[in-house]
Every structure is written in C-alpha cells, then in structure tokens.
Design goal:
By secondary structure, the chain is of the alpha/beta class. 23% of the residues lie in helices and 26% in strands. It has helices at 10-21, 54-59, 75-87, 119-131, 209-217; strands spanning 2-6, 25-30, 45-48, 67-70, 93-98, 115-118, 137-142, 147-153, 174-181, 184-186, 199-205. It holds the Pfam family TrkA_N.
Amino acid sequence: MRVAIAGAGAVGRSIAGELLENGHEVLLIDKAPGAISVEQVPQAEWLLADACEITSLDEAALQRCNVVIAATGDDKVNLVVSLLAKTEYAVPRVVARVNHPKNEWLFNESWGIDVAVSTPRLMSALVEEAVSVGDLVRLLRFSQGDANLVELTLPPESALAGTRVGEVRWPEDTALVTIIRGSRVLTPGPEDALEPGDELLFVAAQSREEQLEELLSVRREPEDDSR
C-alpha cells in the first residue's frame, strides 16, 4: 500500500515509521526545509513541497496513493489537503488529524475525509476508557456513514455476562468487532460467551450508542435471598 503523509513533524514521522515497519510505501511531504529529516525515517520517500498546491501533489503522484494522511499541526492545511486528495486525485482513503476540538465538526465527508482523528478527544477517551466500567467511550469517529468506534468494559452485574455473542440482539447499525480479554484479542464468534471485564469494541452508528450502552449495562435482577 502506498501512503502519502502531509506533515513531517513528530506525528507524521511516527506514523511513517509504523507504516514502514508494516511493509507499506510511505511518502512524507512538508514545505518547511527544517522538517525534512531524511535520516530519521530513511526508508521513506521525502518531498519538500507545499501539500496545498496542486503542482506539489502532481509531483507526489497522489493518484497512485491508496491512503493520504493529513497530519500537519494546522487544521486549515489538513482540510485543504484532504479535499484535494479526494476530489482531484480520487484517493480511496483520506485520514485527517484534528488539532483543535472546536474544528472537529468540519472534518467530514464534505471535505473528503473518511476518518478524522482528534488528538485531544482520543486522549480524553483513553483516560475515560481506563477508569470507566459500564460506560460507553467513543474512541474514533468515521466520517462516512456517521459511525464511531466505541468501547465498553462489561460490568460484572451486566445481564449479558455469560451470554453467547450469537444470542444477543444487538441494535441495528452496530457490529461487535473485537473482544479484549486480559492480554488476548479475540475475534468474536457466535459461540463466544461474554465475560465480566471484557473490553468490547464496536463500530456503531452514533444514533445507536445510547441503546447499545443501555443493553450492555443493564443490571441483573437481584437474587431473592428469602427462598
């Protein structure tokens, strides 16, 4: 897979390193000469250019890319790069970094963005995820289809504890994609039983999040000790 990254700062270089380790081709683009640190990511291609300029993107052969990541520290730049990648070069997948939460509402399909990653939101979500049991935590927003990646740690008192995945009537527009159980990452099958403490990751429509949280957090009826 060929990936172009606009923004060769710490974030862009870190992403590039991960992608290269996974066997992908990476092109880093930045207009600041000081950001061109070839020695830090020597396996990547480098281009000193303004990613907001059509001529620069032509030079980058953006039409050959499977993914474009707009990872600069400027939200305006990330929006422009995303829009050009999608509309002018028909890049199949566009991922954009959101630097300021107040701009998050702009990062959607209207600007050619398939996935928007808000660093402040992600950090707060990870904090919530670490301390919350039984509460739905939104980890990532997908622009297309109005869907989110959400997580919930199944509480011990949940009525679904011990229930097989295939027996649960999940809300529409909701898919259980992963169960994290201790150090294990499980691909859920119909016969797998949910256990208290499981971290459940879903892709779900935003309109279904409240229904999903209610389903997973509903408490068992207390046992009658008088019998």
